[in-house]
Amino acid sequence: MRDLCWSAPASRRQAAPDIPGSVLIMANPTSGGYKAEFLDSVRTRLEDLGFRTEIRLTRHAGEIGEVCANPGLGVRTLVVAGGDGSINEALTGFQNNPDPPQLAVIPFGTANVLALELGLPRKPLAIADMIWRQKTKSLRFGLANGHPFVLMASSGFDAEIVHAVPLALKRKFGKLAYVITAFRIGFKRKASHLEISLDGETINGKFAVASNARHYGGPFVICPHGATDPGLYMLVLDKDDPWSSLRYGLALMFGRIHKARGATVRPFSVATIASTSPVAAQVDGDPFGTTPLEIRQTEKTVPVLVP
Ligand SMILES: Nc1ncnc2c1ncn2[C@@H]1O[C@H](COP(=O)(O)OP(=O)(O)OP(=O)(O)O)[C@@H](O)[C@H]1O
Predict the structure, then answer these.
(1) Same domain, 69 and 177
(2) What is the pLDDT of residue 20?
(3) Residue 82 Cα to ligand 1 middle (Å)
(4) Secondary element (H or E) of residue 102
(5) Ligand 1 atom, smallest distance to 57 CA
């Protein structure tokens, strides 16, 4: 017997959706913090609230994108249970779906910056209740070489770390794995030389990140606008030697990266990041080949459920 049955969420007195509809939870069992019992609690609550709910565990990278691209998906809400990389896959799939469902997120993942950005709940019942309320915001994203990114696309030292961090280290130490990898490669890597063009203006730098979200790498603020506000910003840093990187890292932690010496922050519509020899690139915390990158705004949005 489920006592939770119809024990309405606090907001039950607010406008309730007529047809809750069906929910497909695509869960990445390899994402940081993944818990099967957590998903079961979300599903139980959703079913008590009248949703037909299915949980599918991915068997390989790319599967969330494949499912989200399917025009015959037939669900009203696609829930990604995973981190920012899994969410990125869903967005990418939606680009090829003429009638994509709305997106919801169960925040697993090593960092899950988007969950932070949207202020998503972290408890199973609160997540199910959020899905029940059906309140959406328009999630904006940028395109890097035509590929969507909801948080950031970057090139330089941070992307090299993303490429180099071993999965086992990430699973064992979480976000600390990036710091360990930064120290491991930071003293032997060569400087990156980037030429960044922002709507026609050229800036030279060693590190460039195009940000669609306020936060970067965790609760650290990098950009004045969030992922539901219009506009992309580019942060360019003039140095990437170990000590400058440490200085910039501390400035980021104290929310002062935009004011740090040698940092340039600019809004832009279209940018390119080029280099004479290839420099590592990343989107939303996953490896994304190397330069050159062409980054642009898009007016497209995806409805995402929010509290
Ligand atoms: N079954 C799977 N096996 C291996 N890789 C997978 C599987 N399912 C999804 N992936 C890949 O794992 C990558 C990382 O997953 P995800 O973003 O969910 O977790 P994370 O890396 O721990 O979190 P974050 O991106 O927030 O740091 C995704 O880009 C996705 O392509």
Answers:
(1) no
(2) 61
(3) 7
(4) strand 102-107
(5) 1
Ligand 1 atom closest to the CA of 80, numbered from 1: 18
**Higher pLDDT, residue 5 or 250:** 250
Does pLDDT of 69 surpass 90?
yes
Looking up residue 164, the CATH number of its domain turns out to be 2.60.200.40
Ligand 1 lined by 85 (C-beta under 6 Å): yes
Q: Are residues 180 and 276 in the same domain?
A: yes
Which range marks the domain in which residue 235 is found? Answer: 147-300
Can you tell me the mean pLDDT for 193-219? 94
Q: What type of residue sits at position 260?
A: A
Name the domain boundary from 101, 134, 167.
134
Q: Is the CB of 112 under 6 A from ligand 1?
A: yes
d(CA 75, CA 157): 40
Distance from residue 283's CA to the centre of ligand 1 (Å): 13
Nearest CA to ligand 1 atom 13: 85
Looking at per-residue pLDDT, the higher value among 177 and 10 belongs to 177
Statement to judge: residues 220 and 273 lie in one domain: yes
- pLDDT at residue 61, rounded to an integer: 94
| Ligand 1 proximity of 167 Cβ (cutoff 6 Å) | no
Inter-CA distances, 270 with 121, 146, 171, 230, Å? 34, 12, 36, 14
Q: What is the mean pLDDT of the chain?
A: 91
Structural domains in the chain (count): 2
Q: Is the CB of 28 under 6 A from ligand 1?
A: yes
Decide if pLDDT at 16 tops 90: no
Shared domain for 117 and 155, answered yes or no, is: no
**Residue 236: CA atoms inside 13 Å, Cβ hemisphere, count?**
22
